[in-house]
Amino acid sequence: MKMYFISSIVILLAVFTNPVNAQEQQEQQNYVVLTKKVPQLKPILIAAESLAREDGHHFGKFEVIICGQTVKELTNKEMMQEHINKAKEQNVELVACGFSLKKFGVDRRDISPELKVVDNGILYNLQLQKKGYISLSL
């Protein structure tokens, strides 16, 4: 009986403490960056590319929220297209803050339809953090 009890504990410990199982169960890592300057998109996208390489198949979603007065620059479709193309290549989603668009008089129709628009970028950032996203605000 004593031998049965000890072997049962050994089996349970082996199953539940196996580091390979823990690695296999690791979820994807998601990231969100909130920026107030469109020129920061280039280094942000470089960081996303590096993280994708580092994380490998554990790299999840990467979103960039653009808030503040810089939303006026989103109307420069020629300049933004370069950032949009790079973001698409890296599977990064660019998000515009609807609150900022309203505050600074930017019509949603004047920005690329490839940009996702959320009502409130700060709230959206916090909601993503609640879902486990690693967040950075610039």
Keywords summarizing the entry:
globular; 138 residues; Hypothetical Protein Ychn, Chain: A; alpha/beta; Sulphur_relay_DsrE/F-like; DsrEFH-like; DsrE/DsrF-like family protein; 5-stranded parallel beta sheet; 6 helices; 48% helix; single chain; signal
Structure description:
- The structure is a single chain.
- This protein has 138 residues and is an alpha/beta fold.
- The protein has a single domain, classed as Hypothetical Protein Ychn, Chain: A, CATH 3.40.1260.
- The chain is 48% helix and 20% strand.
- The protein has 6 helices and 5 strands.
- It has helices at 2-16, 19-25, 41-55, 77-89, 98-103, 121-130, and strands at 29-35, 59-66, 92-97, 116-118, 134-137.
- Strands 4-3-2-1-5 form a 5-stranded parallel beta sheet, with helices on both faces.
- It is globular and about 40 Å long.
- Residues 4-8 and 20-25 have low confidence and may be disordered.
Q: What is the overall number of helices?
A: 6
Largest sheet: 5 strands, parallel
> What is the CATH superfamily label?
DsrEFH-like
Strand order of the largest sheet: 4-3-2-1-5
Q: What is the name of the CATH architecture?
A: 3-Layer(aba) Sandwich
The residue fraction in helices comes out at 40-55%
Order of helices and strands: HHEHEHEHEHE
- Count of domain modules: 1
CA-based gyration radius: 21 Å
Strand content: 15-25%
Number of strands: 5
Which consecutive residue ranges, at least 5 long each, have pLDDT under 50? 4-8, 20-25
Just give the CATH class: Alpha Beta
CATH topology: Hypothetical Protein Ychn, Chain: A
Mean pLDDT value:
84
Derived from helix and strand composition plus strand pairing, the structural class reads alpha/beta
Shape by Cα distribution? globular
Distance between the termini: 63 Å
